[in-house]
Amino acid sequence: MKRMHVHVGVDDLAASTRFYTALFGAEPSVARTDYAKWMLDDPCVNFAISVGHAGRGIEHLGIQVETPAELAEVYGRLQAAGRPVLEEGAARCCYATSEKNWISDPQEIVWEAFLTHGETTDYGSDPALAVLASPNAAPGSCCAPVLTPTPTPTPTQSGCCA
User: Fold this and answer.
1) Domain for residue 156, yes or no?
2) Where does the secretion signal sit in this chain (predicted)?
3) pTM of the predicted model as reported, rounded to 2 decimal places
4) What's the structural domain count of the chain?
């Protein structure tokens, strides 16, 4: 089995742990005072968050599903996470047609939940994600908002904990 690994620097570990526990529908497999990790089989990912080891940094992340039933399940998790959800619905983005919903975590990292139906000949367009905006969004990128950059805290220590 291959597993995607994602590590996100956060400002408030407790709030982020609550958010991701709701989003994933699972408790962390590792929880420390500065770190939490979920080893998930659905979606297949090693997902870690930490505070004080790195700055914030992801433009957006996503959970891609294969069936409408899986999409409904993930949409339910978005609602359970207790943050505003942008229901984009049918979308053309990144040369694909999809159905999408968006949410941001307590760090304002934007997440999408989507089911891809096919391809398109154009790149697509951005949804109105300003309310969910990530401070690291690239101008002109299809699947992320355009924002004024927010200062990133300077890391207090370096290292890796995969």
Assistant:
1) no
2) none
3) 0.62
4) 1
